[in-house]
Amino acid sequence: MATERTFSILKPDATARNLTGAVNAVIEEAGLRIVAQRRIRMSDAQAKKFYEVHAERPFYGELVEFMTSGPVVVQVLEGENAVAKYREVMGATNPAQAAEGTIRQKFAKSVGENTVHGSDSLENAGIEIKQFFDEKDIVG
Ligand code: CMP
Question: Which positions does UniProt annotate for ATP binding (predicted)?
Fold first, then answer.
């Protein structure tokens, strides 16, 4: 196994409920290191670009609207097998199907307002990290 970096977003439903610390505790307890973190308000253009792979999906408009509805926390996580590890820690997209102890089982409200995003592949992690962070701002 290799040390990897993955990209994470704590979504507006998390910041609205002051869950940044609680979610970060689950991340850190799982052995993932938060090597960069910034609280931002995502612009419409940023959200549309970030989710452009979903542009043809019926929920795209709703997704962009939600992601720009309040502050988000963008993060870079580092660790052994970080991409797959974080997906395991997040749990299934639909919180009703998320395993016990996962972030989405604990905190997510619905499939849309599901508290966190994590990259789905190492390649996408690299692309997503570059959209929000300069290499010099990542401190491993
Ligand atoms: P995320 O990992 O951020 O990537 C795509 C997002 O689309 C996903 O999390 C969900 O929050 C969202 N999504 C997926 N399916 C639906 C749906 N049926 N309705 C609203 N949002 C959805």
Answer: 11, 59, 87, 93, 104, 114
